[in-house]
Amino acid sequence: MGITTDELYFKPKLRILSDDQLKKIEMAVFEVLERTGVKLTHPKARDILSGAGAKVEGDRIRIPGWMVEEAIRKTPSRLVLGNRKGERAVVLEGDKSWFGPSLDCIDYLDPVTNERMRFTSDHCRISATVADYCDNFDWVMTIGMADDQPADIADRVVARQTMTYCEKPLVVCCKDTNSMRDIYEMALTICGGKEKFDQAPIVAHYSEPISPLLYYDPAVDKMIYSVENDIPLINFPCVQSSGTAPATLAGAIIQGAAESISGAVLAQAIKPGAPFVFGAFVTVMDMKTTVFSYGASEMSIMVGALAQLAQHWNIPFYGTAGATDAKFPDAQAAAEATQQIMTAATVGSGLVHDCSSWIDHGSVVSPGFMVLVNEILGNVKQFMNGMPVTNDSMALDIIDSVGPGGNYLMEQHTLDNFRNVRYSTLFERQIRQEWEDAGSQTFEDRLREHTEKAMAHTPAPLPDDVVKELDTMQKHWK
Prior knowledge:
Radius of gyration: 24 Å
Largest sheet: 5 strands, parallel
Number of domains: 2
Distance between the termini: 70 Å
Strand content: 5-15%
CATH class of the largest domain: Alpha Beta
Helix content: 40-55%
Structural class: alpha/beta
Number of helices: 19
Strand order of the largest sheet: 9-10-11-12-14
């Protein structure tokens, strides 16, 4: 029986927008930047954009459509991030998805006692260790909270903790250019220098324009520094429908896309070919509570639409999935995270952040939720493998051999293939009596047990000479 290559493997795929809708969204983004523009007071950035062709009137920068198209064309379609060992670990291109957790927040939820407390640098050590242990996390992220450290250096301490206790690529957010410089120097020391960093950067910089359509000077400073030093730049506004953006889904993503891609215009004007990642965290203001919802279904719709726009432009995308508004890693948390992750994977949402650690609408880090979402990711990744249709998988000969009324338990074909099924150690499938005989463990019991095991993991240590150099650097942080 002849089978074409297309019939062998097919990746499940979801679309939020039709081709016509996508084109209308694209033209609307160009219209916003050309007609309304952005507010930017940074003198150097204004001069750069003016020299590149933007219309500068005071602090209002209007960007013609041809400049946006040119910036998209110059933005590399492919970005490789490296792990601590220098291996090319994450390849951002097309509709691939790579999932990672944010490792810090205002508060921390103890997975054993369920006690909520202020997040500290040691909590970062714990969550980085869990992220290193969880095999379905491809990369990690920090934002810089550490209540036990001086505010001026807390972001650097958290970045160091993460790079010490987790080998995976790091997306980092920090307070100013001094912090970015120190984190970059740590990254160069850990990976072995500038040449190796440029081959596969182990750190990318996360920056946020302020919605609606506003840039903050210190953030622009960091953007310029990152571009000049070939640090991949993520420009990622947090857009709240009905609050800082239009109440309609289309209006919200148009504004978010305009805010993000305006950063690509600046980056490519500074250095053509600069590595840049497009995206926006677009969700709703819950009118009952006024929170910036991390669990809303509309968030998945809007982020999925933006992912399609990134694929249309052929540039890397920064997505969001795996978060929740729930207060604990409970049924609500699992339901919200699963919908988001499945949507992100089937649309193809690039570098997907907030997976597993953030609960209570982005205010609490929960190692228990990290372990739960790692398991959800395993199930979704299994789903994304699709269903290979080959001569072997169609099994026509074995069906004929076993025949009506037989069974397949003792067949070699079964022995060769049954391990392709995914078996969870967190979600149980026992017969009721067997479950009772084994101790009647609840889901919460199993999650706690698995989380304690992840926390006891020992990450590979940094070399002694690298630790010594980092110690020296830290003494000079200001």
